[in-house]
């Protein structure tokens, strides 16, 4: 099957999307690693610098793109070696939603600070944990995607 207007066959499109998917997975894994380290270093102050939020947004965008590329591959007939690969992707997207809800000025942050933090919200520990989980989901997704275990 060919895409007539562009003159590109389906196998080429599939390969391009697959390379984009793998690139996002590796980039997200490395980005989440950096965010884990950065959040851990700020654990005593409890506050994260402005640059952290910029990189956090980049990793969140990469995660959403990873999901879009993965869904495109699935719809094009690509099936992961292990069905749990899809679960890891969904968990990563869910983590991004939680991170968005806990970002600066967000309502979920205020609720947690009021109900459990006695008015104080240690964003460094929360984002250390969330990014560590995101890192684990990236790592697990990479192992199931590349090696099928």
Automatic annotation (TrEMBL):
This is DUF2269 domain-containing protein. The chain crosses the membrane at residues 12-40, 52-76, 82-103, 124-147. It comes from the Bacteria. Keywords: Membrane, Transmembrane, Transmembrane helix. It comes from Sulfobacillus thermotolerans.
